[in-house]
Amino acid sequence: LPPRVPRLCLYGSGDTIVLPHAVEAFIESERANGEQVRTCLDASAHVSHHLQEHAPRYWADIASFIHATSG
User: What average pLDDT does this structure show over 21-32?
Assistant: First the structure.
């Protein structure tokens, strides 16, 4: 990603496709480099499951991120 572009990481603690510790390592690395990273963690198996099971929260998290980062 280009520098200084806010990031939103939506991930699930039960994900076996993209392991949560890998996402958390990415988040830590980005923050250490001064990047703005917001996160949303739930117990979903994968973000697609989160979208299917918790669509209102998923879209609310995205809308909140856009609102908070659009200046």
Answer: 95
